[in-house]
Design goal:
mainly beta; Lipocalin; 8 strands; globular
Length: 96
């Protein structure tokens, strides 16, 4: 399944909100992408438990966990000595 125009809320050292994320979940893998002031953010990972994904950024040294709960993914992230939370709000219906 794929969702466009998802909203990503980052909490931590630099709280931020992005409204242009794309999320794809298929065959036990997840891909989350959006743009911030440093360029593209590309996170990819795999399902380690039902609806729980370990993800690693391809574009920077960020990693974390996202857990799906209905129309949202929620979890924690770390990047070097920084850490925080993130929530990805999915639209009601997937694109496909």
């Amino acid at each position: 399944m794929r969702w466009s125009d998802c909203r990503v809320s980052l909490g931590g050292d630099d709280d931020a909100l992005f409204d242009d994320a794309d999320v794809s979940i298929e065959g036990g893998t997840i891909l989350v992408t959006w743009w911030d002031d440093r360029g593209a953010v590309v996170l990819a990972g795999r399902e380690v438990e039902r609806d729980r994904y370990e993800i690693v950024a391809r574009s920077r040294p960020r990693r974390g966990i996202l857990v799906r709960d209905g129309h949202r993914l929620e979890g924690d992230w770390t990047e070097h000595d920084r850490a925080g939370t993130w929530i990805v709000h999915l639209p009601d219906e997937p694109d496909e």
